[in-house]
Automatic annotation (TrEMBL):
This protein's encoding gene: murA
Alphabetical list of HAMAP family matching this protein: MurA (MF_00111)
Residues the record marks as active site: 116
Record-listed 2-(S-cysteinyl)pyruvic acid O-phosphothioketal modification sites: 116
The protein's Enzyme Commission number: 2.5.1.7
Main localisation: cytoplasm
Pathway(s) it belongs to: Cell wall biogenesis; peptidoglycan biosynthesis
Protein name (record): UDP-N-acetylglucosamine 1-carboxyvinyltransferase
Role played: Cell wall formation. Adds enolpyruvyl to UDP-N-acetylglucosamine.
Amino acid sequence: MDVYKITGGKRLSGTIKVNGAKNSAVALIPASILANSPVQIEGLPGISDVWTLKNILEEIGGEVSFEDGTMSIDPTNMIDMPLPNGNVKKLRASYYMMGAMLGRFKHAAIGLPGGCFLGPRPIDQHIKGFEALGAKVTNEHGAIYLRADELRGAKIYLDVVSVGATINIMLAAVLAKGQTTIENAAKEPEIIDVATLLTNMGAKIKGAGTNIIRIDGVEELHGTNHTIIPDRIEAGTFMILAAAAGDGITIDNVIPFHMEALTAKLREMGVDVQESDESIHIPKPENLQAIDVKTLVYPGFATDLQQPFSVLMTQAEGSSMITDTIYSARFKHIDELRRMNASGRVEGRAAIITGPTPLTSATVVASDLRAGAALVIAGLLADGETEIREIYHIERGYSEIVEKLRGLGAEIRRETIDPVTSTKSDLSSDAN
Ligand SMILES: CC(=O)N[C@H]1[C@@H](OP(=O)(O)OP(=O)(O)OC[C@H]2O[C@@H](n3ccc(=O)[nH]c3=O)[C@H](O)[C@@H]2O)O[C@H](CO)[C@@H](O)[C@@H]1O
Ligand SMILES: C=C(OP(=O)(O)O)C(=O)O
């Protein structure tokens, strides 16, 4: 079993670089299926979700290489192979195989996706979109089967603003006959990034980044070169780390405009966020004040930063509340933070945290990706050695995290421990 061991309590300083965006990467890679010649994507993060998608494209006959952040994908010999199990269960974004394979082959059979458990994560809006485009969709033994004689453009109103449904419908619609309109579309920067790739492949898309997207179907799409946008969630995680445990940290390769909601909330707490063109500097913060935060769809405060931000709240003076309007059960990290002496409780869709509290080391478990990121920040703050387990969640979304944090002076290492000798009693003491 692999774990992170962190000796906390040191203030960190220096420059930390952000990688390409996970939530773009996991859509850009499947989008390449729609091309009739090779696609090259630069700046991809070396996270496990990207490697899993590489394996999935190879399973369906793609020729794929991935080196130094550049993935070259030759989709010419891909086939409409069913993918009911296996790799597709390892990540949430394997749902993009549905839209991309339906678009290219008019047929797909994809297992229901995995990814973080954050409460119910239905895909009904994706399916509503595919059906509107003319696909027959059935759920057979946990896999979604999609079949269409032809795909025809349609007007689709999303009942829920969904990143995944917006991108998946775009993927299925770019090769459909006629015009598709997605109303109440999500506006995340990753949607613009995917639309940019598809446009450079020859697609006709207007309005990506607004709540109405119009797509005029084309006969075919060709290969292209694309550079991915920076990861605003990784950048946000580092900004929160800088506010919690920094002694002057510069976060490099950021689009400050993407960070506006987080920046506003940090400033409200008393953090001095200094923006440049492609970087953000946060000097050593003093006297953090309690605030309330509510997660919302973009450009609101990202749910993916809710868990890391709750660690920062443990260091602020007073009682803070963080409400997650997107995911009802994204609070498993609170129990783990309580093991580390944090004072917090969950009430419905909100966590209430009182500070400032000195955190203490413990053996804790990452229940999901951003819970893991939160525990890394907590471990860096805590006195003594913290052990974080189930780190495969963290490595779905953060590449070279150990090396990057060491670059700031952190004492963190990845270690393989024996699960038998590391007794369960490490984890069994009740959280206070
Ligand atoms: C791979 C990827 O990009 N993951 C991100 C994506 O997830 P994902 O695309 O799964 O999230 P969505 O934007 O679709 O979900 C938003 C909300 O809509 C609900 N919903 C969604 C689809 C649907 O068909 N029906 C439905 O009810 C969800 O349960 C959730 O409450 O956006 C989330 C919200 O910003 C982020 O937390 C994830 O990091
Ligand atoms: C929830 C997340 O990812 P996924 O949708 O891939 O599970 C995340 O990135 O925080």
